[in-house]
Amino acid sequence: MSQEFDFVIVGAGMVGAAVGYGLVREGRRVLMLDGEDTDYRAAKANFGLVWAHGKGQGQPQYQRLSLDAAANWPLFASQLEDESGMSVVYEQKGGLHFCLSEKEFSDRAVRMSEWHAQLPDVPPSARMIDRRELERLLPAAPLGKDVFGASLGSFDGHVNPLRLLAAMQAAFVRRGGTLRSGQAVSAIKPLAAGGFEVTAGAHKARAERVLISAGLGSKALGPMVGLDVPIRPQRGQLLVTERLAPLLALPASGLRQTGEGTVMIGVTQEEVGFDLHTTSDAAVLMARKAVQILPDLAKARLVRQWSCLRIMTPDGAPVYASSQEHPGADIAICHSGVTLASFHAGAYARALAQGTSSNTFDNFHHGRFDLQKVA
For the segment 223-273, what is each residue's pLDDT rounded down to a tens digit? Predict the structure, then answer.
């Protein structure tokens, strides 16, 4: 049996769920298809940072996108909590990047200066702070002797990523969206009269538009509608401690204390294909750096180590593209689904709903990779 929708979204992870939520808020009829539990799911091990400072080095369009998304997160979180009836445990008090020597601090200062210079029309959103100011910001966290200072991003914060995903899916359904889980898509067929037929298991659905947001699965699905995007997996490993008394008042790159009290430690960036194994070498490196920053963590028990596969493009920036061969088909790929959730549910979903695009989105077309090859 075929059902008619305005949009079929292939993938219900951080990206697909955010876009789906945004589309139903625009009054569109949307079917969202989630894959199998055994799929490679980046959301399983998401660190939960809403992060802008330092992101997009050498890529001002990505920098602007991240800053705008982080700035829009407070309103997005409030609306999502109201509509889903769920707390996503979002905090925006700033975020830290620790520097463990005077040279690291100096190099970071140069990097932040160059990052700010990429967008001269945007007021600086990050600054360098010395150890003395760090100690005032983190009164419950005795710092290691090597901590020299940090950069502090004012728009940064963190959220419970599993609650975020559940809230977006719940709000999507409350708004009238249709969510089917355990429905891996095997075919996307452009129809002669326009629109698409999507096959998932024994079900078929038809829609005027289709959005592919299936993470690593997008590599196989995209070419079905003329959207062949180069992506690769990148393994990230994490550690988590037992619940501790309040210790780290602000999240940091690779280190944050959750609302439940556990401390997340990570993350690695490993080019190992689809290998999801965890390693003792990675655990040692992550734990050693964490204790170097916060020596009290040496007393905490580690309760879990796990890994996931990020979705990476050749330059690390997102891809948002419409098919020229099959109009009505789009693809959205990124490894920063938490930070960009406010954008995906907001400006991006509105553009899809209205059938329009902007130069902002065009900057992220995958055609840029062909240009890089020619250059």
Answer: 999 999 999 999 999 999 999 999 999 999 999 999 999 999 988 999 999
Q: Which two tokens stand for residue 211?
A: 């959005």
| Number of domains the chain contains | 2
Token pair in block for residue 85? 């009836």
Distance CA 152, CA 150 (A): 6
Domain region containing 248:
92-154+232-312
In-domain check, residue 59:
no
Residues 113-164: tens digit of each pLDDT: 999 999 999 999 999 999 999 999 999 999 999 999 999 999 999 999 999 9
- Peptide bond before 267: cis, by omega within 30 degrees of 0? yes
* Maximum Cα–Cα distance across the chain: 68
Contact partners, residue 229, CB within 8 Å, separation at least 6: 218, 219, 222, 313, 319, 321, 331, 333, 366
The DSSP call for residue 344 is: I
Q: What three-state secondary structure class fits 249?
A: coil
Amino acid at 225: V
CA dihedral 336, 130, 296, 139 (to 10 degrees): -100
Same domain, 170 and 304: no
Residue 248, helix vs strand vs coil:
coil
pLDDT for the residue 203: 87
pTM score of the predicted model: 0.94
CA distance 44 to 308: 7
Our measurement of the distance from residue 214's CA atom to the centroid of its chain's CA atoms, rounded to an integer in Å, reads 13
Please check whether residues 170 and 221 belong to one and the same domain: yes
